[in-house]
């Protein structure tokens, strides 16, 4: 491995390494170190293998052709420069970074061109092997559900990956924030198979993906707030899917997001073929959609439908602003599985299918009340492009004091948003650093 990490920086002043080599044992209690790549270890993987709980792995600018797996709890993996520290899979590996231990923070770097995921955070041993997921989502067979608890992904750029940019699967108690995803052949950000999730997805930009954000079987204290989901094929979906465990999807809060012009042709084409949709609710139930700005989506601003035998029940659409959509709200059940108890209140609406939903389906309604259904003429989706051909991202904001800040302490349970305090976003939300502008 690495013989001696001579330049390794002790965070605890005055402590030595005990003579056994950093990362190899006999440190004074409470001593944490910074392991620098490549000064102290030639690769990120080598540095991570040396790290102990509480350590910081700090990566210098460069292109790193490796897949990094973090299996030690409470390690921080951080790049010195978000745009210049690049983990490039060269389309030869499934995942750029796998987080398989609790309390890990991944910060201030770029992951690109992996056949599946830029970053995978998971408690599933099968998912971590990279074998499942060939058709989108992870079917882990008879593997028991095991959650990874506590994680943070912050100031990360994930671009041109074959499934998901940032993927939390069978994980709980985490935050995905201040990140940028593009070129996700399935979704830019995906949260799947958690109950209760206690996950917050906030202040991110997702553009030029097949889907900006997707939550599948992600239930309970699941918050998607203050994001800019613009210029994808579909902005956001929350859905139930038999391919993953913990059916049905329930209890997410989608609030204060800008979800607009999601009909960008220069994007990967997802197998489901969605196009021109702001929000899709597909068999999801008991979700709240609050104070989102949903604009310029040529098919529909918000669609409710069913997943096979799983009806959408009790979704509340409250105080959102709709503008310039083909249909603002459309409820349609072509497969015969009809929803119940879905309702609207206080939205700025122009056109709905069926018509006059604001008065005929106003909140509150009984969960046994049938959800009306209709159809409309949907625009034909153009063909997509290979995810590898999606435009490269521009420069994104840096983690503050990345090279000098200490390791990040990830809380066991994140602070969950106060839903009432989340405002309707301005049109300009998260405009800086974005490649697709509002029309």
From TrEMBL:
Tell whether Isomerase is among the UniProt keywords: no
Domain of life, source organism? Bacteria
Q: Which UniProt keywords apply?
A: Repeat
Report the residue ranges that make up the Periplasmic copper-binding protein NosD beta helix domain in this protein.
159-329
Q: Name one Pfam family in it.
A: NosD
Name by which UniProt lists this protein: Nitrous oxidase accessory protein NosD
Q: Which organism is it from?
A: Kutzneria buriramensis
| Lineage per the UniProt record | Bacteria, Bacillati, Actinomycetota, Actinomycetes, Pseudonocardiales
